[in-house]
Amino acid sequence: MMTERLILLSLHAVTAVLGLGPIVALALLASRRTPPEIAKALVFFSRLIQWALLVMLATGLWLSLLSGWAVLRQPWMHVSLTLYLVAGALLGLNGPKLRRAVADSTAGDLSRVRRFALISCALVGGIVVLMVVKPG
After folding, report:
1. Distances in Å between the alpha carbon of 118 and those of 6, 61, 72, 104?
2. CA–CA gap between residue 35 and residue 10 (Å, rounded)
3. How far apart are CA 107 and CA 69, in angstroms?
4. Percent of the chain's residues with pLDDT above 90
5. Which one, 34, 37, 44, 92, has the greatest CB density within 10 A?
6. Which phi and psi angles does 34 have, rounded to 5°?
7. Helix, strand, or coil here: 136?
8. Whole-number pLDDT of residue 107
């Protein structure tokens, strides 16, 4: 039988996996000469990422509550949360740039979007390692 913890943990993990796809799409599709129709898709991916980040945060906090907040006292969790905040900030900075590109109908140079998405992919990879290994 699925317990509340297992349901939340599953939702948390599935959201992380599905949320990473749009981040990779941003990294692969954004470039110096991004066509406007691709930029529209990237705006959609950016919104998916925002929702995925919110769901991961909510389920993560709920899981922490179920553990009596003990996990938040672990140093690896502090590093994970810091990486999460940095990745979220970088991805959040992409949204306005993408929306402006679509509004102007000239997507143009989205190399910053690409760079931020690549960095965010690496940060998410680090978070996954920390969540699985739980060092210390």
Report:
1. 31, 26, 27, 25
2. 37
3. 44
4. 77
5. 34
6. -80, 125
7. coil
8. 62
Taking phi first (over 0 means left), then psi (-120 to 50 degrees means alpha), and beta for anything else, what does residue 135 get?
beta
- What is the pTM (predicted TM-score) of this model? 0.91
57-85 per-position pLDDT tens digit: 999 999 999 999 999 999 999 999 999 99
pLDDT above 80: residue 123: yes
Residue among 28, 31, 16, 11 nearest 123 (CA): 16
Write the single-letter amino acid at 106. Answer: T
DSSP notation for 1-66: ---HHHHHHHHHHHHHHHHHHHHHHHHHH--TTB-HHHHHHHHHHHHHHHHHHHHHHHHHHHHHHH
Backbone angles phi and psi of 32, in degrees to 5: -70, -30
Does the structure show a pLDDT above 90 at 3?
Answer: yes
